[in-house]
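Cross-posted from the bioinformatics board.
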Amino acid sequence: MKSARESIPVKTHHIAQKFDVAGRAVTLVHTGEGNVNDTYLAIFRTVFSEERFILQKINKWVFPHPEQIMENMRVVTEHVHKRIEEESETADRIWQLPRVIPAKDGKDYVIDEDGEYWRAITLIASAHSYGCVQHIEHAHEAGYVLGHFQRLISDIDCARLHDTLVGFHITPDYLKKYDEAVATKEGLARIQVSAEAQRCMRFVEERREWCSILEDAKEAGELKIRPVHGDPKISNIMIDDATGKGTCIIDLDTVKPGLIHYDFGDCLRSCCNPAGEEVQDLGKVFFDTDWCEAIVKGYMVNARSFLTDADIHYLYDSIRLIAFELGLRFFADHVAGNVYFNTRYDGQNLNRARVQFKLVESIQTREKQIRSILDKASELSPG
Ligand code: GN1
Ligand code: MG
């Protein structure tokens, strides 16, 4: 995070001021976190107090209906807050979830003069998230937090949630988008110019047939749609500074109906790569099965009660698939000229794709071991 009050436009301060927070905006800091939205830490002061919250500009290119995201967020946060409250007596910790801060006009967002949507959410204080898993207890907490969140939202009727990002985690659809990008003159040129890009292209071709595995199971009625988080990567898991325990999962933009496998696979692919998504040295990328075991054990504490046999059957595939899918999404964006993910240097999306593809290879190599971890954890936990 760099302190950059002077470089944040005055109009952003004016927008922050439109939310229902006491005092005046003294500082806005661009956090630089997130690949999609623009996120700021806002500090407001009165003569006797200070409030910190998160201010975000929603990426309209990615989320064409920001108002639907905010409606989902209302439904989900109010539901989860109620459930947390109901279970508070028996809970092993104080669970949290950020709250939407309304604008002074009562709406859940502010639209600026350029038609951009802004929202404010409360900051979970005395807790942090990390770009990579720090140690094995941290891995366990990531799984525990995800399972807990999925359980708490499992009784929200999917009909109450908008599909805010059509096609999200539908791997065959990403393949189509990739094919379209490759079919353009510019796209093809971006591949031809780089041996790395050509290797990525071959990697995708070798897995083309297999990538509809979860969608096929959904079509066949084996797997059912439920409310999911959509983006449970390690940097969205908040850890209490004092206890080291998970306190909540943040970034609720993609909570919508989907397969729990999208979440499970995404959590594992994110947490079990000790090198993180942005590493340049590919030699450091591998799938850590010790961390996998800790995450799965943590996850099953809550999830075993709602997972069916068919769900369990596809858990391994989900890990491999979501890592592949993210690599494909990064690569397709590189080929398309970086239109979706924020980038800070040339070739960043290509590098990100290579990291995920390396991870896929590592997952494949360790398939037997991962399957045995999953089998054991599903047996041990109460059904
Ligand atoms: C994006 O913006 P952020 O960092 O929350 C993306 C996720 C990816 C993730 C990879 C809406 O999330 O799907 O897994 O990057 N979100 C969207 O870091 O596409
Ligand atoms: Mg996200």
